[in-house]
Predict the structure.
Amino acid sequence: MPEEYQSCENIIRYFANKFRNYYEMEDLMQVGRIGLENAKRNYQENHNTKFSTFAYLYIKGEILRYIRDSHLVKRSASYEKINHTAEKAREHLRQRLMREPTKEEVAVFCEVDVGLLEEAEMASQFVRSLDYVLNEDEEGKEIRLYDQVAYIEKGYQEDILDLKQALGELSEEEQRFIRYRFYEDKTQQEISELLGVNQVKVSRQENKILEKLKQQL
């Protein structure tokens, strides 16, 4: 089982990386290891389940519980400043260009790296999503998303974990491409405009990344 424990370190790192912009990485890793220890105590080999599969929910649940109990996500003041500047830039560029400006155009106008601009936007969206009011309980108390987040994705399947781990091993550029293509559902033409390359290169890049994932899986 020691080899499977090592694979669980990768699971811990995967979840810790998701929230590294809001919490200390080492704190998240330690919380994940607490989940791993809980999994060790509760695992029985006659469950007919791989230990890494069993530990996945313990690790994820512990990290999400830590985030939920922290109640508020820590936001960097610099991110707020970037978002404020970017919103003003978008309004100015809309009037000048008579269309919605791209992220790259906004980044150039603000004189910041487009990756930093995306990080600032993601940080802001993450906070709003956790504070979103889902409903009220019987006593009229608001139920927010962070109160329910620990229950998301309980229907874990091992092949999904394998895919997530494979995606985590892609380069930053490749992960950004995957996000554009499959998470934001952008067309190859839209991606080519965002990246400033022709569509043929985008198509080749997509095939290359998918083949790489296929080989890893």
Observations:
- Residues 162 and 185 are 22 Å apart (CA to CA).
- The radius of gyration is 20 Å.
- Confidence is low (pLDDT under 50) at residues 145-157.
- The chain has eleven helices and two strands.
